[in-house]
Every structure is written in structure tokens, then in C-alpha cells.
Amino acid sequence: MYKQYFKQALQMLKESPFFGVITVLGTALAICMIMVMVIVFEIRNKGFKPELNRDRTLYVKDVAITRKNEEGSMNYSLVSGRVAKECFFTLKTPEAVSMQLSRAQTLVTSTDQARRMKCDLLRTDEGFWRIFDFEFLAGKPFLRSDVESNIKKAVICRRLALRIFGQADESVIGQTIWVARRPYVVSGIVEDVPALANGAYAHIWIPYPQADVDRLINEETLEGLIGSYRVLILARSSGDFDTVKAEVEQNVARFNNSLQALKIDLMKQPDTQMESRLRVWSNVVPDVPRMLGQYALVLIVLLLVPAMNLSGLTASRMQKRMGELGVRKAFGANRWTLIRQVLAENLAVTLLGGALGLLFSYVAVFLLKDWLLGSFELASLNSGLTLSAGMLIRPAIFLFAFLFCLLLNLLSAAIPAWNASSGNIVDSLNDK
């Protein structure tokens, strides 16, 4: 029966091509605008390789330092290695904890200086490789012993391996490269990381100096309290977030007790992926429910406006079909049967427009990616903004597209279908 409804809908589009084009394009553009927002939201907040664990990762970016028992100014800084050691590396609940130095640009050259590449460098530790799901083409990551011993090992991406060595396989492992005029031994090669993977992205990864972790604290100069690191915590599940945060608070309180005149404040951190994205100012906790409410309101407006326009087109079409509906009512069809027919026919057109709209949304995201996803930080990197299939092709996006098609169908066709099915049989037969 529903197959017949779909055939009737396609036949009506052929009989009235102008009406069909307006209806399909109106639906397609509505779905396109909505899906662009959904796709951008998914890319910014949901996991993709190598950041597959975003849903159970917590972040600490900033620390406030102030005097005990005094109201006054604060010093804001990134996390120091010593604070990370005392407050985060001792956590028992998480699966892994990592610390990474602020991303920097550096020059990587071959030993004979003949081949070189300007790269984005990330200094980190062994926990980094447990938090992110890198695809190793050859070799392996550096170990905890390498970090503690200040052994100069490096993991490089495919692009850098091809640039320096002309290949990206096992033959590169163990060879030496020069990073900022210092020799490093290649321990692993990974697949290139898109710049949108903010926590994992780099061209080359090396251990940070162990001295930063073991640095002594001087409360007068703030040495050991201010730093340039960011901490990442991988929970075993998102359900452990509250437990992890409670353990962090205990560690911070114990650390503050060891200080004489100062104390540190994490300002409600660790943050989730979304909270970390929305935290513009260090001391302002992002209001995630409010932000999501605004986002939902925009989606509703984008859905309602075209639905109202399409509802007028559907009502006009229903007026022309009053005779047909009158004949069906005369032969015993009840109101719900007629409404089901109209909704099914309109759904066929809506799904056609939805599929076209989803295609338009992908094209729009590709063409406008620098505007939609760009930022000052991304603009300063040595890689262009690229989109992978893993970011765009995912079940959630197709589910959202289908859901919006259903909602648009109900909003645009339900009222015209109800009005058309409630008319008098005689008036319907006379096209009134």
C-alpha cells in the first residue's frame, strides 16, 4: 500500500514539474541548513579517529593561583609539570592521564640537511598514546622510561616520513632526524592526523623534559606553579566523571595544604569535550545547557519557517485533489486512511528533498569549511583544514537527517491533510 503511495507521489511530481521542483528544493534547502549545523556540531564535539574517546576524556587547560585567606588578584596560567605530577598523575580512577606542552612550530631536517620540513611539534608522554587511537604504520610510541630518561625518541606522521626519507615503512624506524638542531631517533610512524583533532594533531611527537615534572616550587617567583601544559584524563566511562573530579579535588586540596602562602584553583575543571570547547575565559564556567538550548532554538526556527511555506504548497495541492479524496470517501475510506495516504505521499517527496539536502550539506561543509570550522589556532598551523570520511559519514548524521525529514513532513502536511479529509463528501466530489 505504501509503495503505491510513493508511486503516486512521484507521478504527481511528473504531472506538475514546477510544483515538484519548488517542493523538493524547498525541502532540500531546509534540510541542508539544519544538517550543516548538525555536521559542524558533530565534528567539534563527537569522536573521530584518532580522537575516538572524546566522550570519556576530560581536559584541564588553566590554573588560577592566589594567596591563601586573601581576596585579591589572581595569576592565570596553563598547568605546570609539577602541578600535573602532584594532582593528576597520582589519580587512581582514570584509565590514563597525559600531559602535553603547548603546540609549537619547529624545523625538522635530515641528517645531511638536504631535506627539511616546517612542522607542528607536540611534546607529550606515554599516556598520550593510550588516550588517542593512532594508526601506526611502523614502529611504536615512546615509553615511560624514555620520558623519564630524557631519551630523544620521536614519532612522526606519514607526511613527514615521506618528506625526509621518501618512504613511510619499517626501514625508517631507528633512523635519525634533526629537530630544532637536535638529533632524535624515529621510534614510530603514524597516519596523518587532521588539524581538527585539536588534542592529537601534530607532525611530530617527542617526550617533554622530565625536569619540568620534577621542578621545585618557589612560591615567591611562582616557579613550579605556572607552566605551559594541558592535562588530558581518560576515564574508563563517562559515568566515572564525577568520581574522577572528586578525586582531583582531593588531590588539589592536599597539594594546597603543602603550600605555605599560595593555593591553586582549577575553576571547576576538569572539563568535558564540550565544556572545554565553550570555555572562552579561564574563570568563567561555560553554561552548556544554555548553549544547547540556543542551538536547539535555532534548529527549530530553521525547521518551522520552511515547514510553514511547504504547508501552503501542500494545501494548494490538496485543493486540486478534493475530487479524488471525495471519491475515496464515497467508497468507504475514513479520515485516518486519507490522512495516512497524504502523509505517505508527502513523505516520499520529503525524503527525496532530504537526500538532496544532505548531499547539499556535505558540499556546503566542504566549500565553507574554513569559515564554518576555522579558528585563529587552526590558521597558525602548518597543515590545511581537511575533512575525513570518518568525520562526515556516521550513523548519527543520517539519523538526524531522517528525523528532520519526518518532522518536516508532519509539520508541512498534517494540517492540510486534516482539512482535506474533514470536508463534506458532496463538496469534495464537486471540488469545493
What would you say about this model in short?
Helix content is 50%, strand content 17%. It has helices spanning 2-15, 17-45, 81-87, 128-131, 144-148, 158-165, 210-214, 241-258, 273-278, 288-320, 322-330, 335-367, 369-373, 376-379, 389-392, 395-421, 425-429; strands spanning 57-60, 62-67, 75-79, 96-101, 104-110, 116-124, 136-139, 153-157, 176-179, 182-190, 204-207, 226-227, 229-234, 262-265.
How would you portray this structure in words?
The chain has helices at residues 2-15, 17-45, 81-87, 128-131, 144-148, 158-165, 210-214, 241-258, 273-278, 288-320, 322-330, 335-367, 369-373, 376-379, 389-392, 395-421, 425-429; strands spanning 57-60, 62-67, 75-79, 96-101, 104-110, 116-124, 136-139, 153-157, 176-179, 182-190, 204-207, 226-227, 229-234, 262-265. The protein has 432 residues and is α+β, with helices and mostly antiparallel strands. The chain folds into two domains: 2-48 and 289-429, no CATH class; 62-270, no CATH class. The chain has a six-stranded mixed beta barrel. A four-stranded antiparallel sheet has the order 12-3-2-14. The two termini are 27 Å apart.
